[in-house]
Amino acid sequence: MESACPIIRPLSASDAAAYVSLRLCAIDEDPASFLSTREEEEKRSIDEIEARIGATANQVVLGAFAGETLVAVAGLRRYPLRPVQQKGFLWGLFVAHPHRRNGIARRLIAAAVDQARAMGLTQIALNTGRENASAIALYRSAGFEAVEDEPSDDAIDDDTDREVEMVLRLD
């Protein structure tokens, strides 16, 4: 691990291979935290990945780079429907294990909040596992508040998941 403070910037098409590698690492480490499986992710073409991570007026995927290595990511997406277009959703926050506990996640969240404000958003929502106390503490320290526990009726492999929805109001 490099001791220098990682650079945070929006990902571009040239970062697609690094993004795929980091996302597969994240899925391997904690598959229950992702809606897609490793197998589904491996089937995505590089064109799909480039489109997925490319910045638009409605989304950005931020990456933290230690030197040339992508070590963390977080996505921010505006809700697409007109009645809620002032709201965004933070997704896919992941920091590679050797780079944790160095403030990278906190810096990615701050960068996402700055981006949300630049996009004119008034609120950012996210979901995290109810049992993920460290993630909940991190989000609370960044100003997010739990708004509800969300029981899931969908069981995957006979395992029901419970999530906490959290919101940060920007106005």
From TrEMBL:
GO molecular function: acyltransferase activity, transferring groups other than amino-acyl groups
InterPro entries, alphabetized: Acyl_CoA_acyltransferase, Bact_Acetyltransf, GNAT_dom
N-acetyltransferase domain ranges (all copies): 6-171
Keyword vocabulary terms for this entry: Acyltransferase, Plasmid, Transferase
Xref: Gene3D superfamilies: 3.40.630.30
Pfam families on file: Acetyltransf_1
Record has Phosphoprotein as a keyword: no
Keyword Acyltransferase set for record: yes
PANTHER family: AMINOALKYLPHOSPHONATE N-ACETYLTRANSFERASE-RELATED-RELATED
Protein name listed in UniProt: GCN5 family acetyltransferase
Organism whose genome encodes this protein: Paraburkholderia caribensis
